[in-house]
Fold this protein.
Amino acid sequence: MILGPGDVKGDVSRGADVVIIGSGAGGGPIARELAGEGYSVVVLEEGGYFTREDFNLDPADSYMKMYRDACQTITLGVPFILLPLGKTVGGTTTVNSGTALRMLRPVLKKWHMTHGLTDIAEEELNLIYGHLEEFLFVKRADPEVAGKVAATFLAGAEKLGLSCGWLPRNAKECEGFGSCAFGCPSGSKQSVDVSFIPDAVKSGADIYTRCRAEAIRVKGGRAVGVSGYFVDPVTGRPDGRRIEVEAAVTVLAAGAIYSPYFLLKQGLANSSGQVGKNLQIHPATQSVALFDEPLGPPKGIPQCCYVDEFKGEGIMLEGGTVPPEIHSLALPFAGRRNASLMTSYPNMGIFGGMVSESDSWGRVVDLHRPGYRPGMLYTLRGRDVGKAKVGTVLMAEIWFAAGAKKVFTPFAGHYELAGPRDLRRMERSRVRATDIFGMSAYHPLGTCRMGGDPEWSVVKHTCESWDLEDFYICDGSVIPSSPGVNPQLTIMAMAMRCAGFIDDRLSASS
Amino acid sequence: MKAVSRQQLQELLAAYVGEPEGLPPIDPDGQADFIAEYFAAGAPELKAVFFLCNLSLRILSFLLEGRSFSRLDPEARQELLNRIIASRNPLIRGIGVLPGLPLLMSYYRRPDVAVPLGFDAAALKKESDLRVVSRDRDLPPKQEDAS
Ligand SMILES: Cc1cc2nc3c(=O)[nH]c(=O)nc-3n(C[C@H](O)[C@H](O)[C@H](O)COP(=O)(O)OP(=O)(O)OC[C@H]3O[C@@H](n4cnc5c(N)ncnc54)[C@H](O)[C@@H]3O)c2cc1C
């Protein structure tokens, strides 16, 4: 059952075979697999439960309901980077763009060689990816519904002879309502809330929503469950009711920001000192293009095509149209200048470029902020600033090849590019991290990394903690380095593996 | 919206949003309600930062223009903001950029603004409600087709 605050009377104290904290890309698949095997599964999810009826294509409304801190989560460092995190049943997948890519092949080699993860075999991983792709109806975006912005950008990339194409997506019969990041209103996107969670519930799992896990209960070096409390849907503050779940296995799947924060607060599973470190985020810039003719945003699939010509160098371009209220924020102008461009919104396209392989590492720390909020420290290093610039220049070049009149970038001194001359000037210029007007990132990873050495990693390849028995961590935080692409499929793959090991563990003990 | 006074909010909204041709004017009261809700739902620091940015903007107005922000004419306020946003000093730029977040959102999310720009969320919602997407491997016909 999915239990909302109204379904729970007073405190809850109960037992289960497995208790999972978080219902996103990591927690959801584990809940489904283990409930499907007949284990009793309890999931604690801090966010609320929303369905397609609630998804009303209203960005701000969805920020306030389904994103942590109303989507105002920002890294501290240079530049400030917006790092949105989902907080709802399905986790961030409920509000993500639905790109479903396997990690780049060389990355697994790197994991073998530098992280001691030789137990993760390529064949095994490919089998899991294959299974997930079938389960989530992954297929390439349909050009018929992709929308004109994407088609125009791809045409520009093709004109320049760049490697590009339509992205694989976990969406079934998508008709391009342009609203993936605010909850899919047609139920097409196969996010965890509509795929893994319903199956888990059918198999008997109980999902407690608006329920924040507070601490792992530990007895004799083993995790024996979780304690937490229910939170008020509006204020997010404790509403006075508590929950205690005693379980044979405890799984932390609160995401790459909140899992380490949870552990740091409790001072747990950190003999390596690596908890919270090694934060990777795939920092991204955007480019906005103005055309003479209408492109009709945001109807279409917001993120449906890519240019991966420079993926080897750690630069991936992936598209994204957005409704006017978000679009206006991408323009580095105020007043009349912003207004005159916004009246041309129908003639504008927007695209994103991410640094998919970076040298910058951040950190999650407990800064004792008010409420339940970690600090995220992250500064973009020199080489990555260069990559962000190269990606932005490349996007501008593609837009111009596609016929754009003007392109707007987030680099101070180069906000407005009127043509190839401005482009060359930007290309030749030296930019600094401090020059970037606005950056965002969507893929936090690595803060409880897995590895073969307990001195350098937080969990084993099975996702079990090196320090605490019967305690597993499985979400973006265990991914030891960037998969080179959007990470949800890889996180889910690790969750499927992890569920297998937990099953082994539970069946051995019974 | 306690972070700034009503008059200051009105000045800021006008300076950030401008007067987009063919679109309705700003609605300080209605937009203030949204901004208050948005701040209440977010991290408490953001509201404080908004307050600080407003204050700093007013100090910068004295330093750069020799007059208070309120006494600049609307055009000059916008120009000042654009100068600040174009600064290569990230702290100064931040003073101009951050307040834009709730202010611009509060305007462009209004249906009477978004619909003329081609984004009719209510119509799209109605259209999406007609779709039936099941997780079955064999698709049922679309509801409209079936009728
Ligand atoms: C706008 C956006 C677009 C994206 N697009 C894509 C894309 O197209 N493709 C892709 O591969 N990736 C995409 N991503 C990233 C992807 O969605 C995430 O990498 C993935 O969901 C992370 O999975 P996770 O399990 O680590 O965390 P999450 O999915 O975030 O799940 C963690 C859950 O834990 C809950 N939680 C946290 N703390 C507690 C606690 N103490 N108690 C109870 N519950 C708690 C949270 O509320 C949350 O629901 C996107 C992200 C964003 C923000």
Summary: The first helix of chain A runs from residue 27 to 36. The CA atoms of residues 24 and 91 of chain A lie 4 Å apart.
